[in-house]
Model the fold of this input.
Amino acid sequence: MTDLLAARAQMAMSLAFHIIFAVVGMGMPLLMVLAERRFLRGRDPVDRELARRWARGTAIMFAVGAVSGTVLSFELGLLWPTFMAFAGPIIGMPFSLEGFAFFLEAIFLGIYLYGWERVSARAHWLAGVMVLVSGTLSAAFVLCANAWMNTPQGYTLGPDGALQSVDLFAAMWNPAALPEILHMTLAAYATVGFAVAGIHAFMLLRRPGDRFHRRALGLALAVGGVFAFLQPLSGDLAAKHVAEYQPVKLAAMEGHWDTERCAGLSLGGWPDETSETTPYALEIPCGLSFLAFGDPQAEVKGLKDFPVDERPPVAITHIAFQIMVACGMAMMAVAAIGAYLRLRGRDLAAPWFLRLVVLSAPLGLIAIEAGWTVTEVGRQPWVIQGVMRTAEAVTPMPHLIVPFTTFTLLYVVLGVTVVLLLTRKVFTAPEEP
Amino acid sequence: MVLLTPELMVAGVILVALVIYTLSAGADFGGGAWTLLASGPRAEDQRQLVDDAIGPIWEANHVWLILVVVLLFVCFPGAFAAVSTALHIPLTVMLIGIVLRGSAFAFLHVYTHAEQAHDPGPRRFSRIFAVASLVTPITLGVTLGALSTGIPVDRATGLVRTDFISEWLAPFPFAAGLFTLCLFAFLAAVYLASEAEDRELSDIFRRRALFSAGALGLTALLALFAARADAPVIHTGLSASGWALPLHLGTGLAAVLAIVLLWQRKLLLARFAAMAQAALIVGGWALAQYPYLVFPDLTITDAAAPPTVLVPVLIALGVGAIVLVPSLAYLYVIFKSRGRPGH
Done:
């Protein structure tokens, strides 16, 4: 393993680990706030117990998210010092603002978790709202920084190649920022809704009729379902932006080799980079042209138009994209069935439906991991699209396999511990009073 | 007269954040380290006291470090790159400590108090929390100490000349590491003595505060001695420059005052004296380091990002503070004011 590959592996592993906790930090406050609001209105102790129980789970997830996020902020320098020496100031505004958002999130989470008996019911609920708002803002700012790596702008270089001046707001509001923020925020809410619904569905299968889990399932599934249905809108926006600003990434996502009008949309298939084809794909005529540009006759650039050393790994990007879309579709299907049952006045706790919800619990997480694989691998070989290659950004530190192995082991142990604690101590139902 | 340039203002904000981090998160680490030494018939009460003291606030306190890191890479990108390249190893160890401390503490809280005292699972988390709370301050001190031993940077290319080891594997950084640990432990003991609601428990931590004040003095001498060979910039700064004497007098006065007040059981006043002492120590270190961010090639001015970055970031900091300060005050009022319910 080369040091560059080890550095990329460590970064990918750290991001893949952190994103799970970051997503929970965005989505769980929404569920807690909704449950607590129901309690404030209806005074049903089940709702209060729900908010408390979810808060206990969130406390663990938030702590691991905060420390693994700290690791990432250092890893930017530990692994990619050349990138940070150049880009640090340019993406300074979103990161500075993220610092404040994270501060607020930590402060109000402390109040929310430990303040049940210390502040008024209303102040407690508002603290939860603050956690929700600042958690989502914090993610939005980080996404602005990532978006800049995809569509860099807002800076000028002097004759010596050094940074001369920066327009921090132009850098922050780069073209990819809005699509990334929308797509990821909706993804986080949908994912958490489905994951939580799946866990409670599992408990309901073991203890049918339990009011606590029924209430939890209804609320979580409603949240997950609504956002799963909104997601294709933001996905469409994101795809059109990629088509415009990162045509090579779009071509890799689609396994699309030849520049053509009326380009077909490939479903499935396994891109082969040596023969420059994508065999085994089911093709919808003119589908790609239509989805990417809203016009079935639009020209879509193919990978062959780009030099080989500027193409991302096609197979990984394409397959990850297919996985993400498939998971999203499946979530919409489950949400549609749930909505149908509700409208017909049927019981959501029917065993067959509960099993379906359990099966769909991890779909959102898989979609998010796959989606980030598309974003990050699809940008390769660049760390800053068209400006700096990943290979130029890496640290001269040798033996990077050592920290990669160390952090991987650490995160495996942490991940297993979190799962054990959540299943044994958090998600078991309270005794009925 | 020093001109107050944007880069100096940002450096000032970083220093303030470091001081607050020391006073808040530093004490959280110190508290964790004390749970390792919790002993005697009241060991469980000691752990519980630490637990109650840091539970609601440690995550917010931790964010000051994030703020320091972010401001460093946004406003002094070359210094951030040089430091994180040359000090890869101690920074990595520190991160592992941070991860283990925070996670173990959160894991511990899934259990009830009774389970925490007796079950093997939570006991293990408690032990990890304590050991990580001990290791992290040392590595933090090693890292800060290494900034003064010298990390040569080629100013034309921004490349750092390092063997990744010699900058930190030296007496001064480790003396600074021990010193940091003693400082954090001292602060924690003073805070805990003033927060404990029964006299016996308070006295345990009062004794520990006095003991760690002594250890702090010893490690300070050790660090000063090691600085003579390893970190001349610190040594001259701390002993020969014009501001050294008043600063030392101030720090010494605060230290003596803290000890006397501890002795007299004026614990709230002792707390303020200890905080003043710690703030003066961090400030003194920064002044000794001035004008270098990373000795000997990167001064604050050399390493600064263009003014088009610094000025908007300073404005953002100001606006952010308007939201942050009341929120932080609210948190502390809820959890740190006297006469807490439920106790």
Q: What stands out?
A: Chain B is about 80% helix and 0% strand. The beta strands of chain B are 292-294, 298-299. Residues 199-230 of chain B form the longest helix (32 residues). Residues 339-343 of chain B have pLDDT under 50 and may be disordered.
